Amino acid sequence: xxxxxxxxxxxxxxxxxxxxxxxxxxxxxxxxxxxxxxxxxxxxxxxxxxxxxxxxxxxxxxxxxxxxxxxxxxxxxxxxxxxxxxxxxxxxxxxxxxxxxxxxxxxxxxxxxxxxxxxxxxxxxxxxxxxxxxxxxxxxxxxxxxxxxxxxxxxxxxxxxxxxxxxxxxxxxxxxxxxxxxxxxxxxx
Length: 189
Description:
This protein is mainly alpha-helical.
């Protein structure tokens, strides 16, 4: 049996789950209440942002670099193939897509750790932008210079465009969490 959490404090002094969180019978409302919904929202947000990120990269590759649309998938496939240069094979395109979407979901989940710190929409937008730029620094500049050298190779992905794409990713996560930022920080009744 499912019930909606109430606005009053529980006998244990725990803060109840938000009103729109479903709490099953026997489950104490608290920190883990609604975790499944939050996780699902994060995965969908990551997939959405990651797909638009990928489409932007593909369009950029075709329009500005005279490369095939699958070039971004081949670039990311070097994470697992460890090739010096990305090879244009169907297997590498699939490896690149699976890697990209998996990382996008993971980064969507990671962003949920930041959301409770952001009390309003303006802070959430700034947080999304900062999150995307931090991903750029960590993934491209740090890991790209030490482990995955193709990402900082002059023949690899263009750095100015990568900054834009990563900022775009962070901003595309924001709409999925606008309501959550206010609910998490709402004062207890």
